[in-house]
Design brief:
This protein is an alpha/beta fold. The chain is built from four helices and nine strands; from the N terminus they run E-E-E-E-H-E-E-H-E-H-E-H-E. Strands 4-1-6-5-9 form a five-stranded mixed β-sheet, covered by helices on one side. Strands 7-2-3-8 form a four-stranded mixed β-sheet. The longest helix is centred in the middle third of the chain and has 13 residues.
Length: 186
């Protein structure tokens, strides 16, 4: 379902609801910085902002890995392959209550080591161009010190699941049910 900016936040019961499967990708460069996008909800005044990883919904007929590869390309301009993806590292069920919709996502988190690159927003949708207002390669120190909202709030816990050498062992970390919303979903 496409999110459209609205001017006022309707009552939570009046907002449409949807559920989808989604892939999120931690892109980590050679300096161990994580790429995040500054997203917003223009349906609320003052407009709340939060930082998110690249990623999004799995399209019909698409595998989880195909979705992760596509989302990285669309949101960052970086071409990766399924073999570049490490994980899944973690999974959760998250409710995102926005001013125009309540979305429940069954999310998995993946890791990709890459060289730093110039982000391209050429693949962004009209809504993403309106709401995703910046991007930044964050250091651990910046993430630990910031007072800005970072989604997932467990970002560094997820990052730390990837050892310096090799791949993570075992099943994905179950982060449980989480709410990350600009408007209370219920």
């Amino acid at each position: 379902m496409t999110r459209l900016p609205v001017l006022a936040a309707p009552d939570p019961d009046a907002r449409p609801r949807n559920r989808r499967r989604a892939m999120r990708v931690l892109l980590v460069d050679e300096a161990d910085r994580i790429l995040l996008f500054r997203d917003s909800d223009p349906g609320i005044t003052p407009v709340p902002v939060f930082w998110i990883t690249p990623g999004g919904g799995v399209d019909p007929g698409e595998s989880d890995l195909q979705a992760a590869v596509r989302e990285v390309a669309e949101e960052t301009g970086l071409a990766i392959t399924e073999d570049d993806l490490v994980g899944p590292l973690a999974e959760r069920v998250v409710v995102h209550g926005y001013s125009d919709i309540v979305t429940t996502q069954d999310e998995q988190f993946w890791f990709v080591r890459c060289s730093s690159f110039e982000v391209s927003t050429a693949g962004h949708t009209a809504v993403e161009l309106a709401t995703m207002t910046a991007h930044h390669w964050w250091t651990r120190a910046e993430l630990e010190a910031t007072t800005e909202e970072i989604w997932p709030r467990d970002l560094l816990t997820i990052r730390d699941l990837v050892p310096e050498k090799g791949s993570p062992q075992g099943d994905p970390l179950d982060l449980g049910d989480v709410d990350e919303s600009t408007v209370a979903p219920d």
